[in-house]
């Protein structure tokens, strides 16, 4: 008989197999919940972050050949857990099933219903210089000495075991509330989410579902690994938050009933269907006025402003609803050297993006960051591309934008290089250091965001200029997007992004840095270049699962 051991407690409870009396008790419990509908979920921000969770546990079950077999294994495990509830008032438990085949997490997510909260995050795994996300993890049977090391490529999740959201700015209390549910011993229990660019600004209707920040630990998660995959479920409960084990397990069952195990190979290409309309806020006339206003402020001797990043929101309407997951799958092809992400709260729009810019990556006490600034198109030939690179490196205006984007206090100027993406190239620099203690992570996040690359310099003067000048709510655009883990966390900057709404098309966002020497028309052209990777991929030709024809079925 296997025991379910909680490392922070001295007791255990049996997991396999249940007795006849326990099975009868399970049937009574199922009948009790048969007509009950769970309408509440657990907001971890409402708990006491100083009070530790009773247990944080991950268990790995036997590997299987396909997602459908993994579903069967997890369904059995859930029934057994119902018969043996943990004797603790709070906890978080992850059960994971390795799959002996590498399946793309984005394709698994596309197969799922869109009426559940969902998330997706993939790191930059194709970096020639080896700086992409590289989370190593041990996967093995808890009763075996054998373990295997895999690299995590991407993760997709639906449903929330616990979420974290407030209307006030993200605080140390909120960070501690998230970390309360995480442990370095369980590296794949992670909270995915995003934070607003400016938490002091009013939240517009399209961003209301996100609050000032939104994070979720998925109930059902699909992890794409190098050479294999993994399907996992997570149950979180806390009696102090009026979310009991019984409620948590029933909520998970409800979510599992909606999970599809058939995964369809996506066609990652645009259909060429025309965009019906595209409306910019601001339009070209108001953009020119805003840039001239910024330049006037920058060139005023009494002004502190050195750089300000102005942005544009573009409403894109197509003949049919935009599928955010299929769109994101195509962005993966566009941005192999970038982060891809999706975050969709309950009953809210989907925030998706393909960003090349890392905010920070922390593993234990080691931390790294980087800066991107200035933008040029890629050349049509290798000679022209090299000439554009030379112009980028030698431009005084772009060098000024780059130096103020690296740090507001540059002690040693980092080496400036060029980062080449599929359509565009940027000036680029890497930064790294060590934290004194883990709690410094919150201070790093607070000090790095918003970066000079998406806000300006000095930061507060630039933020005020943006709030007084821009005519739309940036929401999570240009804010931190990523995940917190126990011993590791990673955040990108939410640029090259869009907000996809049902029946309302998409809002695509782009920004450009205004410094001395900037030209309004040139900066507008840069906005068009940055937005092009989104607009050129609409609309996607991906049939609904009920109408699948001539598509490759993975499982």
Automatic annotation (TrEMBL):
<comment type="similarity">
    <text>Belongs to the isochorismate synthase family.</text>
</comment>
<keyword id="KW-0809">Transit peptide</keyword>
<comment type="function">
    <text>Isochorismate synthase involved in the synthesis of salicylic acid (SA) required for both local and systemic acquired resistance (LAR and SAR) while SA synthesized through the phenylalanine ammonium lyase (PAL) pathway seems to potentiate plant cell death. Also involved in phylloquinone (vitamin K1) synthesis. Has no isochorismate pyruvate lyase (IPL) activity.</text>
</comment>
<keyword id="KW-0460">Magnesium</keyword>
<keyword id="KW-0150">Chloroplast</keyword>
<comment type="pathway">
    <text>Siderophore biosynthesis; salicylate biosynthesis.</text>
</comment>
<dbReference type="InterPro" id="IPR015890">
    <property type="entry name" value="Chorismate_C"/>
</dbReference>
<dbReference type="InterPro" id="IPR005801">
    <property type="entry name" value="ADC_synthase"/>
</dbReference>
<dbReference type="GO" id="GO:0008909">
    <property type="term" value="F:isochorismate synthase activity"/>
</dbReference>
<keyword id="KW-0611">Plant defense</keyword>
<dbReference type="Pfam" id="PF00425">
    <property type="entry name" value="Chorismate_bind"/>
</dbReference>
<keyword id="KW-0413">Isomerase</keyword>
<dbReference type="InterPro" id="IPR004561">
    <property type="entry name" value="IsoChor_synthase"/>
</dbReference>
<dbReference type="GO" id="GO:0042372">
    <property type="term" value="P:phylloquinone biosynthetic process"/>
</dbReference>
<dbReference type="InterPro" id="IPR044250">
    <property type="entry name" value="MenF-like"/>
</dbReference>
<protein>
    <recommendedName>
        <fullName>isochorismate synthase</fullName>
        <ecNumber>5.4.4.2</ecNumber>
    </recommendedName>
</protein>
<keyword id="KW-0934">Plastid</keyword>
<dbReference type="GO" id="GO:0006952">
    <property type="term" value="P:defense response"/>
</dbReference>
<dbReference type="GO" id="GO:0009507">
    <property type="term" value="C:chloroplast"/>
</dbReference>
<feature type="domain" description="Chorismate-utilising enzyme C-terminal">
    <location>
        <begin position="284"/>
        <end position="530"/>
    </location>
</feature>
